[in-house]
Amino acid sequence: MGRNGGCIMYSEKVMDHFTNPRNVGELPDADGVGTEGNPVCGDVMKIYIKVADDKVTDAKFQTFGCGAAIAVSSMVTEMVKGMTLDEAMKITKASLAAALDGLPPQKMHCSNLGADALHKAIEDYRSKQK
Amino acid sequence: MKKIYMDYVATNPLHPDVLDAMMPYFKEEYGNPLSLYPPGLNARKAIEGARESTAALINAKAKEIIFTSSGAESNNFAIKGIAYALQNKGTHIIVSKIEHHSVLNTARFLEKSGFAVTYLPVDENGLINPEDVKKAITNETILVSVIHASPEIGTIEPVAEIGKIVKEKGIMFHTDAVSTVGNIPVDVETINADLISFTAHQFYGPKGAGALYLKGGTRIVPLIYGGIQEGGRRAGTENVPAIVGMGKAAEIAKRNLQTRMDHVTPLRDKLINQALTVENVFLTGDRENRLPGHASFVVDFIEGEAMLLLLAGKGIYAASGSACSSKALKASPVLISIGIPSHRAQGSVVFTLGEETSQEDLEYFNESFPQIITRLREISPYAKGWEGTEDASCTAKK
What we know:
The complex is a heterodimer. By secondary structure, chain A is of the alpha+beta class. Chain A contains 5 helices and 3 strands. Chain A has a 3-stranded antiparallel sheet. In chain A, helix 1 (12-19) packs across helix 2 (67-80). The longest helix of chain A is centred in the last third of the chain and has 16 residues, at 114-129. Chain B is an alpha/beta fold. Chain B has 2 domains: 4-10 and 257-379, Alpha-Beta Complex (Aspartate Aminotransferase, domain 1), CATH 3.90.1150.10; 16-253, Type I PLP-dependent aspartate aminotransferase-like (Major domain) (Aspartate Aminotransferase, domain 2, 3-Layer(aba) Sandwich), CATH 3.40.640. Chain B has a 7-stranded mixed sheet, with helices on both faces. In chain B, helix 2 (38-57) runs parallel beside helix 8, helix 5 (130-136) runs parallel beside helix 6 and helix 8 (240-276) packs across helix 12. Chain B is globular and about 70 Å long.
């Protein structure tokens, strides 16, 4: 066991975002909402964004899943605030994992859905603009 | 920070008297038990003493005990050893769906080698119906293997009754008693088994020491060939300190069995009652036929690994059968077998108690556990319900 009493398989940054997740909850007046994942096989992430002048002004999340899934959700909502939509679309699984100082290999795919959920939220917003 | 170990089903701490008994065999008594000079003879004597007390724990004869390295080895040995010994008589084996991996994976190996295997279902409490065993038996059946108690859901199976049915048909009966021996009474006279697997670290003995009870006169094919150790049935220079430790742990377990059960049973009941006061928390396994220190639950709308991490953050060490907390990233087959859908199996959490568990521990648990559930449910998109996820199927790549 490492610091925080946490599991040694996770970096301190993952444990920090898991134990003190940022931006938890719903955004009732969200401009875009994206859900990724499936509780039957693992994790589910729901991401809410507010958009103004083509920029993400606020982001929140709700996640069902393991420590990595919650940390990824927290990190993606932190990262995306202030980004333009095009910049946000460039966030990837790899960049999220890197921002968390890495994820265990078995968690890279099933728990690292933050980018996909975010991109779905942006697509949701864009589809409403047409 | 507090440190509350609630994972006795994973392993037990070593009893201090067991360590004391083992120490001389790491140090001065290092002889090979096959050697004919005093250090060897002393080691031989120590092994035979350990065999006596290990046998006594289950009311067996010393010569019916074969020492192994683990419960998993004993299970492999029992199933492969009987299958190969009796393959000319028949090639059908019966096991339950809630066996340990060391039984299930051995059965799957034998299937690939030409044996047929029937996997018995269990009811919603994890109980095997002895009538199902009777129905599954064919003229080809040579072995039935049923777990004595599930480490995941705590259910104690009616093995004596199943054994009686199996023995009436003249078929070999094995039980994986890793979770029960040293924790509840196990007596070879009443359990009707020809083979019983068990391991020392489930009753405050060392890891690396297991045993297989093999009823006198039963023929078995070895798993490990080599020298004449263990009567030629399990070759390899004996792990003398571990075997001595198993013997000592068995002696203490036999003496303290009732006291240990009387200690953990009321604590378990209290923990179960406390946990069930939280909304949408459900007990898994049988309420009555249950290991004395075992409390297992499904907590709806949240995931097990996240629970374990937050519990560990509070110094409480527990286990889970959730997909994310398993290396295989698959929901526990035991939970699926008792009818819990995969998404709910994600909320599995298992607390197992032992000698060092105290009333104060339970008070601390009772404060911490509901807080953790609330915290994770605040994050969960399902806090208000599963909203139709029952129909979802898993298509994600792992």
